[in-house]
Amino acid sequence: MLKLIITGVTLLVTVLGFSQKTENSLLWKISGNGLSEPSYLYGTIHITCDATLDNNVLAALDATQQLYLEIDMDDPTMQTKMMGDMMMKDGKKMSQLVSVEDFDAIDKLLTKNVGMSAKMVDNFKPMMISMMLLPKMIDCPMQSIEGELMKVTAEQGEEIYGLETVAAQMAIFDAIPYEEQIEELVKSAKDDMAADKEKYKRMLAIYNSKDLNAIMAFMKEEENKMYDDHSDIMLDNRNKNWIAKIEEAAKTTPTFFGVGAAHLPGENGVINLLRKKGYKVEAIK
């Protein structure tokens, strides 16, 4: 369950909105600015029906010597580290933030979909609850792009690292008001995730089209307002923090960087930030 939540965290904090147009591609080559060999940047989606890596991605993995994901998902202590950050601060509980009727709706949703009473996770951050429900968004067995990247990397005998810590990623959900988080959860509960499933179906189709600009437009829609309102916390600041680590890794070792696709485009996206640093970042099609 914790591994599921971890992949869900990276999903919810990476599909946000932007304004700058970006060429359609998920795989980008990073070169120039003193790099002796190129590195590669790849936009992922964390929960999908088909995580098959295409030949260009496999070639980029072959050409590099280490993998960086948003967090080190190969760390054996990751789940332990995460456990301490799943609870709301100051003893808050979901049952205190909503009406009895709304909490009952959440309880029914969890009981039906994950076989767990809301009372058992009453003190969890509401977004953590949303993560538990993510596999129910798709009508197929869940696959993960990160999982496939890790599999190939392990077969090559190479190391896996993270651009940020689990604690840093989980802290995002303390910076967003719990009241806003649980409002989204109540919406999911009241229609048994019908709207969520339709939105995720659309998002998968957009991702598979490799149209990063369409992802931006999709997440700017009114029903995704909470994520757009907090894009600085959930996206922009993280991108900026990653650049120094990306530079350090790429300068010493040809590296494959796999991050949520919506981190790539936009004025504050990783592609533009690297270009501003003097790197050549080219779409691989």
Could you explain the architecture of this structure?
- The protein is α/β, with parallel strands linked by helices and about 280 residues long.
- It has one domain (about 1-285).
- About 50% of the residues lie in helices and about 10% in strands.
- It has 14 helices and six strands.
- It has helices spanning about 1-10, 55-65, 80-85, 95, 100-115, 125-135, 145-155, 165-175, 180-190, 195-210, 210-220, 225-230, 230-250, 270-275; strands at about 25-30, 40-45, 65-70, 160, 255-260, 280-285.
- It has a six-stranded mixed β-sheet with strand order 4-3-5-2-1-6, with helices on both faces.
- Strand 1 (about 25-30) and strand 2 form a beta hairpin.
